[in-house]
Specification:
By secondary structure, the chain is of the alpha/beta class. Helices cover 33% and strands 15% of the residues. The protein has seven helices and six strands; from the N terminus they run ββαααβαβαβαβα. 23% of the residues are buried.
Length: 207
């Protein structure tokens, strides 16, 4: 089992914690991690783009001129793609880009990125994270105390609105619950911050 330091909100080390190898010490499966990222990005696509083909634009019910003798190239309809106002060749149509992954595959991908964060010393465990009021300055101070640079993903065990709202205006930070964490957000963050309660919940749920 990996041992990590536990810090308080002042950035001081207050103890250590053992992480389960079943969650934070697995063999990294890059293929499933890639699939999980592609799936999330694909599922977020609206797929509502639309353009009209030659069968959908108005007009063009007759030949614009006779076949021969005019000096023009022969034309059968003003709805053809080469005409201004004509249809689009292979026009995009609304579609669903989403696809499914097995639950076991999703879990393996999530465990892989959590293991990667531990291996690269990009995971910080906090004993607790709570504020008496909603204040961005308080959240920024915690990040500074922990010497976090770049993007950070802060995972909470419970939906503490004081913490969530305090982090909302910090462009380099994002909060998530243990029930909403995903592979893309973890990979996108340079540093992953977990509360002790969040670590315990993740180990219980994903074991």
């Amino acid at each position: 089992m990996a041992n990590v330091s536990v810090y308080n909100m002042e950035g001081k080390e207050v103890g250590t914690m053992e992480l389960s190898d079943a969650i934070f010490g697995v063999e990294i499966n890059e293929h499933l991690v890639h699939m999980a990222v592609v799936q999330q990005l694909a599922n977020n696509r609206q797929g509502t783009q639309k353009a009209k083909t030659r069968s959908e634009v108005s007009g063009g019910g007759r030949k614009p001129w006779r076949q021969k003798g005019t000096g023009h190239a022969r034309q059968g309809s003003t709805r053809s793609p080469q005409w201004t106002g004509g249809g689009v060749v292979f026009a995009p149509v609304p579609r669903d880009y989403s696809f499914k992954m097995n639950r076991k595959e999703k879990r393996t991908a999530l465990k892989s990125v959590l293991t990667d964060k531990v291996a690269n010393n990009s995971l910080i465990v906090l004993d607790k994270l709570s504020f008496d009021e909603i204040k961005t300055k308080n959240f920024v101070k915690v990040l500074d105390n922990l010497k976090i640079e770049g993007k950070a993903l802060v995972v909470l065990n419970e939906n503490d609105q004081n913490v969530v709202m305090s982090a909302k205006n910090v462009p380099t930070a994002k909060t998530a619950l243990t029930s909403t964490i995903n592979v893309y957000d973890i990979l996108n963050a340079k540093t992953l911050v977990l509360t002790q309660d969040a670590v315990k919940t993740i180990e219980e749920v994903y074991a």
